[in-house]
Amino acid sequence: MISIVALTECLGRPVVDPEGARVGVLQDLAVLPLEHPTRVGYLVVRAGGEDRVISAQALSSIGGGSPRLRSEASGLRSLPTENLLLLKRDLLDQQIIDVQGRKLVRVNDVELDARPQGDELILSVLGVDVGARAAVRRLASGVVPRHSLRKLLARIPSRVIPWHFVDLLESDPARRVKLKIAYQGLSTLHPADIADIVEDLAPAEREAVFETLDEEVAAGTLEELDPRTQVAIVEALDSDRAADIVEEMGPDAAADLLGELAAEQSGAILEEMEPEERQQVRRLLSFGERTAAGRMTTEYLAMHADASVDALIDALRRFEGGMEALATIYLTDGEGDLVGAVPLAKAVIAAPGTMLRTLSLAPVVNCLPDTPDDQVAELFDKYNLLTLPVVDEHGRLSGIITADDVINVLRGAD
Amino acid sequence: MLTRLRSWKIRLALVLAVIGPGIITANVDNDAGGIYTYSLAGARFGYSLLWTMIPITIALIVIQEMAARMGAVTGKGLSDLIREQFGFRATFLLMAALVVTNFGNVVAEFAGVASSVELFGISKYIIVPLAAALVWVLVVRGTYHSMEKVFLVASGFYLAYVVAGVLAHPDWRAAAISTVHRPAGFTINNHDYLYMVIGLVGTTIAPWMQFYLQASIVEKGITPRQYRASRWDVIVGCVFTDVVAWFIIVACAATLYTHGRHDIADAADAAQALRPLAGEYAYLLFAAGLFNASLFAACILPISTAYAVCEGIGLESGLDKRFDEAPAFYWLYTVLIVVGAGVLLIPRFPLVRIMILSQVVNGVVLPFVLIFMLRLVNDRELMGDHVNSRAYNVVAWVTTGVMIVLTLAMVFTS
Question: Residue A78's domain spans which residues?
Answer without folding.
Answer: 3-163
